[in-house]
């Protein structure tokens, strides 16, 4: 078989269901759907309580999706789900309901296609999904990490840097139109080329305001060196701190991909006042799937904010085979990006996940007042004793740091 | 009905199965058992992969339990489960296998019984469970938070302080015998009375070495003020830092109960070199059950160490009714302690949980080399950029801290 055919086959339609890695079950869409298809309703409800939590003491409510939106999702073959988190009514503050959207998608053309064609094909694929979000009244929409290109960093080939764009480049302009049209804040994670700093490459999220203006950017703070995530070959640790963007619809921040493994990164966005933190990602099954539902949700609990987690879908195959530092033979793909985008709330509840295989749009309504309500309830900020940790981290940074270890004085005594 | 009868009924045998809060399903023992009883094996295996992860690419293995131990668990009616985490063989280090045990239990006598009787009845109940752990070759054993008393802090009555003991008190002495007999490290979380500091009360874990010696103690760092967890009425934030205890079987630490909500607390034990962190707890269903499987596991992933999570079981009813600050009528119990003790590993895998209703002993074999293997694989320490956070926390502590907020300059412009 020609390599290009192979690529065409694998990068094509995301609708084709695939076997899971171990071959035991074919193409189930998500854990939640697998459970609801296989459990009695009563059992399923209790399992959901344990796995997804409760919102105001009740299972999370679905939002009815209008027929027009259902038609679009069916026509363009993307998963469409919508939920509503519950919060208490307050007596001194109006509720601050916002509708938030996450989009996950596979690439469209083979990675051998001309780069501009690849990018524009993604634009074309996203258009009806973003239109659906806009038509459904989404206030804040976030796309996946490096959404305008294949996630080619596994290859270590520098030619993929050509996809990098300035903050106000073509991909931003594409999204600015939707922001204006739908009065919607859009978060656009791209590969950034920083011409003013000698063509430096960054992994950057651009925050587009609801008038189409660029509010600012955040550059990925923590860069992986694990598996085929050879991103440290391409770009360095971000230099934008932990900004929180005050938008028309609340205070938001972006923790890009691998930053979700760092509780301190999540903490910093919280200390700066974030109410929703987005985690646009690109991650593959064998490496991280069991971690995926844990880390974002822990961050939402610990920091009393909402989290929107996005992962791309599909398998991307590249022209030249590469090895993975695991002694296995060379191969041409990065593994299966398992989608499964979802929201987590500060009250420890979370939504079911989007498909593991299909493009998707996940909506959720949330009252941002819930963040403060949870701070008042649990008091994590007030009981945090930050002074202990400021001191510890300052000491830890020194090369001669001595950990606090109490050794058993009988350690080398023989057992009686 | 007399109140004492009521108490007797509720505090009695833990074996009696109870309805879950919403009444939909009666007395299932654990999420894992509920799923395996209701799913086809093939589906269950895939659900387990998503929920519990893989260990060396395989489902976590059970350890065969000898008939003698099974008989003890049956005779004394406690849940007994055993698993083995997998690690790679290294070429330059011997593997460091340890067998670790967690015990969860309900109290025995009504809380109206004489205090000494209540305590000694718990001793008697624990004896065969600890003997089973010893006979099975457990190297490190941890009991639940304040294991030698009812969790009476919901009442705000100061008379329960009578249960507090010095570090070398009766409860410690009780456990020192087992430590010597079985050459076993024992972690004993008690209510501590610190006579040398004016009868100060602490929530303390005592680390007993495998020769029966007291290696040291750790006092709970973070004290809750949520629901009926009125612990701040009884004791203050611990003054022992984040010690790691170097024992004959590895470097261990203790994050007591509410400290699990604080990622910085977990982090500090990791920075000090812990390989296993125990989280002895007492927590109830409606408040925290959906958080329970998330936080400890996130800590194991983020800090590349094992976590042993323990929660007590049963419902404890107190002589005098109390209110809960939620506008609801006075009541006499704290809610259902849902057990569900389990282990989490640094590779994101975790064991199934012990029963939600019964006493239990959970064993796990683990090669402590796995901690460093995961540090080498994922590099979370090296990519953590602690300097950013030392600086942020130092600034945050100042009363005039200014969060890093970038406001949309068009924030107050009317939408077009």
From TrEMBL, chains A, B:
Protein name: Beta-ureidopropionase
MF terms in GO: beta-ureidopropionase activity
Keyword line: Hydrolase
PANTHER family documented for this protein: BETA-UREIDOPROPIONASE, NITRILASE C965.09-RELATED
CN hydrolase domain boundaries: 98-368
GO aspect biological process, one term: beta-alanine biosynthetic process via 3-ureidopropionate
InterPro entries (UniProt xref): Aliph_Amidase/BUP, C-N_Hydrolase, C-N_Hydrolase_sf
Enzyme class: hydrolase
Family membership noted in the UniProt record: Belongs to the carbon-nitrogen hydrolase superfamily. BUP family.
Catalyzed reactions: 3-(carbamoylamino)propanoate + H2O + 2 H(+) = beta-alanine + NH4(+) + CO2; 3-(carbamoylamino)-2-methylpropanoate + H2O + 2 H(+) = (R)-3-amino-2-methylpropanoate + NH4(+) + CO2
Start and end residues of each stretch annotated as Disordered: 1-20
Pathway(s): Amino-acid biosynthesis; beta-alanine biosynthesis
Biased composition (Basic and acidic residues): 1-16
Claim: Hydrolase is one of the keywords in the record: yes
């Amino acid at each position: 078989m020609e390599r290009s055919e192979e690529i065409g086959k694998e990068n094509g339609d995301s609708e084709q269901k695939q076997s899971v890695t171990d071959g035991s079950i074919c193409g189930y869409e998500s854990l939640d759907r697998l459970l609801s298809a296989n459990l009695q309703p009563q059992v399923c409800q209790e399992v959901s309580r344990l796995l997804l939590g409760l919102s105001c003491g009740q299972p999370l409510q679905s939002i009815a999706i209008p027929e027009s939106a259902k038609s679009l999702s069916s026509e363009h073959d993307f998963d469409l789900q919508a939920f509503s988190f519950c919060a208490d009514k307050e007596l001194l503050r109006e509720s601050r309901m916002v509708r938030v959207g996450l989009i996950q998608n596979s690439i469209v053309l083979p990675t051998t296609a001309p780069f501009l064609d690849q990018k524009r094909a993604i634009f074309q694929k996203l258009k009806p999904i973003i239109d659906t979000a806009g038509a459904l009244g989404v206030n804040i929409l976030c796309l996946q990490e490096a959404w305008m290109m294949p996630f080619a960093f596994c290859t270590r080939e520098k030619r993929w840097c050509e996809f990098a764009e300035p903050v106000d480049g073509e991909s931003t302009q594409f999204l600015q139109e939707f922001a204006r049209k739908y009065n919607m804040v859009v978060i656009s994670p791209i590969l950034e080329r920083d011409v003013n700093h000698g063509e430096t490459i960054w992994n950057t999220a651009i925050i587009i305001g609801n008038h189409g203006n660029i509010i600012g950017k955040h550059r990925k703070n923590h860069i992986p060196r694990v598996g085929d995530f050879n991103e440290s070959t391409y770009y360095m640790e971000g230099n934008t701190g932990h900004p929180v963007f005050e938008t028309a619809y609340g205070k938001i921040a972006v923790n890009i991909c691998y930053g979700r493994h760092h509780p301190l990164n999540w903490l910093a966005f919280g200390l700066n006042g974030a109410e929703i933190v987005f985690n646009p990602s690109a991650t593959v099954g064998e490496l991280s799937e069991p971690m995926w539902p844990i880390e974002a949700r822990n961050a939402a609990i610990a920091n009393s904010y909402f989290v929107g987690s996005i992962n791309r879908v599909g398998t991307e195959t590249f022209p030249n085979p590469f090895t993975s530092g695991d002694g296995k033979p060379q191969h041409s793909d990065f593994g299966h990006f398992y989608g499964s985008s979802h929201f987590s709330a500060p009250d420890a509840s979370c939504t079911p996940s989007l498909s593991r295989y299909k493009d998707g749009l996940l909506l959720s309504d949330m009252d941002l007042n819930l963040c403060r309500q949870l701070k008042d309830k649990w008091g994590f900020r007030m009981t945090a004793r930050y002074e202990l940790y400021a001191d510890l981290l300052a000491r830890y940074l020194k090369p001669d740091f001595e950990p606090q270890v109490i050794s058993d004085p009988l350690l080398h005594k023989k057992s009686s």
